[in-house]
Amino acid sequence: MKVAVAGCCHGALDKMYETLELLQRRHNVRPDLLLCCGDFQAVRNEADLRCMAVPAKYRHMQTFYRYYSGEKKAPVLTVFIGGNHEASNHLQELPYGGWVAPNIYYLGYAGVVRFRGVRIGGISGIFKSHDYRKGHFECPPYNQQTIRSAYHVRNIEVFKLKQLKRPIDIFMSHDWPRSIYHYGNKKQLLKMKSFFRQEVESNTLGSPAASELLQHLKPTYWFSAHLHVKFAAFMQHQANSKEELPKATKFLALDKCLPHRDFLQIIDIEHDPSAGDSLEYDAEWIAVLKATNSLVNVTQSSWNVPENNGLHAKWDYSVTEEAIKEVLEELNHNLKIPCNFTLTAACYDPSKPQKHVEPVHTINPQTTEFCAQFGLTDINDRIQQAKEEGSVRGEYEEEEEEEEMDSTGSAEEHSEYNTDNSGLSSINPDEIMLDEEGGDEDLSTCSVDPSPDHPPDFSASFSDIRIMPDSMAVSSDDAMDSTNEELEKSGVSKQVEEKSLNERPLKRIGGNENGNSGIKKIKRRNQAIYAAEDEDKTE
């Protein structure tokens, strides 16, 4: 089957889907599935804009709300993970995943699903060592710290994914696995993004947590985004035993969603022709969620996952075939994910702007149903209980002291990873510079700049279709000089080239309700995304 893979969408759903339609009209290529590697920006209304970690002047409504309201429907099944520019309050409603609009599915903090027999996994957010060992304690209304920490990867999600034994076909992460650039055309990468050189040479570019997962899961394909540059790599894995067959991963990072940028790729994936067209639960993943349910943590305290170090009675939470069989029996062998999308917030109305609407902590009925069906803990419900018990403070009073510390770990204990890396220390001219303390942001302001009702015709911009190799195979390091020429000569896959807030009580929604050295530290923001015409450099 044909799978379309997109980089950072940044809320430009109309543009993304129009590109797919153009591909079909001109080349008779119609993807069966669309995957998006984060920064999807499922923004429903002005309150959601306030929960997105970007300066106020770059908060734009874009077009997701039209799909949320039902005005439009995604023309192809879309599965995405979260990045570091998201409506965190919206995605937080679905920690285990769920529908954010009809035909658009979010994988959750971490998740695995199946489509036509193809096993697809992913992990949302970016790596930051100072939050890695905390629980998911954040909830709206966010402050200057939690609006960022909400999208930071946690060790519990990595731990869950490492319990998987069965092969993964496709895996998605927002930031790149650390060291992956050593397995592709590193020379070409540094030619395009010279400011990556320091991090590449010191091997600190990318997520160490994602690298850990790459080495453990060894998926056939790994897709990422975040750094706003296209890059391919081929990683041959070492076998863990004589009995294990050699495995390799084809890695591809996609550019951001803008005209004339390589933000979309079509890949041919082997699938099960006898499988249905519905998105399905993955039985092993459900069994792992059940097995690790007792490990749910909603506190700010640093926490270590179980390991074989003499401190834990149990450290192996991988599941048996019997446990997987039990999940199948619970579902009567019907793994189809129910189409139970529900509106949980009022949708943006261009004629009735609500610039001062406050974000609220919401429990999504999809999560309630999912947890009830599989006997899991509703993380948002647990957060609310902890807040009511005084275990979780809404003001994040001790965070200032922690933010002043070196990012290699917390005051109590060093992180298992010696560097923090999702934000580069070099200067990226594509990025918006922000102080880590967030002084440039005003969470109380909401700048709504909706997309026009009649989007422009992108056919003139999205006109170049290239032939890409079937395997995306690339040699490592400097042996890569001839790769680009080879990419042009052979293959079957086609690429489309495109040049502080008041506390609010928890809101439970029913099924029928709508409801830098002189330079500031870099956050992964691209000003061209939020204001395509604005080429000014921020301070």
Features:
zinc; disordered C terminus; globular; eight-stranded mixed beta sheet; 17 helices; mRNA processing; seven-stranded mixed beta sheet; alpha/beta; 539 residues
Assign a percent range to the helix content: 10-25%
Beta strand count: 19
What is the end-to-end distance? 46 Å
Molecular shape = globular
Strand order of the main beta sheet, please?
Answer: 4-5-3-2-1-12-17-16
Overall SS class? alpha/beta
Number of domains: 1
Share in β-strands: 15-25%
Rg to the nearest angstrom?
Answer: 22 Å
Question: Helix count?
Answer: 17
Task: Extract low-pLDDT stretches.
Answer: 392-415, 423-442, 444-505, 511-539
What profile does the largest beta sheet have? 8 strands, mixed
Average per-residue pLDDT, rounded, comes to 79
Concise overview:
This protein is α/β, with parallel strands linked by helices. It has helices at residues 13-27, 46-50, 64-69, 88-92, 129-132, 146-149, 155-161, 186-192, 197-201, 208-217, 283-291, 321-330, 365-374, 379-388, 399-403, 483-489, 527-530; strands at 2-6, 33-36, 78-80, 98-101, 104-106, 110-115, 118-123, 170-173, 221-224, 231-237, 247-253, 261-268, 279-281, 362-363, 431-433, 464-468, 493-498, 507-508, 522-526.
Account of the 3D structure:
- The chain is of the alpha/beta class and 539 residues long.
- The protein contains 17 helices and 19 strands.
- It has one domain (2-394).
- It has helices spanning 13-27, 46-50, 64-69, 88-92, 129-132, 146-149, 155-161, 186-192, 197-201, 208-217, 283-291, 321-330, 365-374, 379-388, 399-403, 483-489, 527-530, and strands at 2-6, 33-36, 78-80, 98-101, 104-106, 110-115, 118-123, 170-173, 221-224, 231-237, 247-253, 261-268, 279-281, 362-363, 431-433, 464-468, 493-498, 507-508, 522-526.
- α11 crosses α12 (321-330).
- It starts with a strand and ends in a 9-residue tail after the last helix.
- The relative contact order is 0.19.
- Residues 392-415, 423-442, 444-505 and 511-539 have low confidence and may be disordered.
- InterPro entries: Calcineurin-like_PHP (IPR004843), DBR1_C (IPR007708), Dbr1_N (IPR041816), Metallo-depent_PP-like (IPR029052).
- Belongs to the lariat debranching enzyme family.
- It is found in: Nucleus.
